[in-house]
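== Polypeptide entry ==
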Amino acid sequence: MNDEQLLRYSRHILLNELGVEGQEKLLASHALVVGAGGLGSPVVLYLGSAGVGRITIVDHDTVDATNLQRQIAHNLARVGHPKAESARDAITAINPDVVVNVVNQRADPEMLSQLVAQADVVLDCTDNFETRHAINRACVAHKKPLVSGAAIRMDGQLSVFDPRQPGNPCYACVFPETSGVEETRCATMGVFAPLVGIVGTLQAAEALKLLTGIGSRLVGRLVMIDGRDMAFNEIALPQNPHCAVCGPPQGH
């Protein structure tokens, strides 16, 4: 690190858990963020400000006036602009040293497989199960840790799925593709603005911990946040031995 970086990241460096070594790990890291909306906004801002050296942002949508209530990476001047580019501009305004790759396309399995393979950590900030499951399959295939967050109405949830260790659950263990869970979106159900900030900030914290190896992670644990009463509840998540994604191959 040069003198400017030592100054910029001095409050991280002062932490015994991080120090210079931890900050250098962040500078050498690559995070993939899928979704640059309510969850993705605080995620990319905190990853960028913390000095994650390379961030790839995937989002096919454009900034809309209705997004500005909660998607803090965007502003009025960028309404109509691609969200991924708007998020990149927000990061650059805080920390121009971060290399930001922008993908203005809807995430599909082939693209995700390529992008996940290149990343050190993956953050799912999307709002639909199809994409969430595609991200999960790519992370399991390439053995990359996945930080998954969700928020709707006044409720949020957060977990980390790390396929690098055998016995850890994946997203599909908890939410199987065949579960028939009804999909709800902010556009139709609404969402409490600070809630996406809370969940997204926690996602960023878990990603930074994964990249530096500090603390204990939310692997095998699901945190559920009740925004009405500001209550945090946690449940254990075992691996599903019959999971179609991370379980043993069929017929074994």
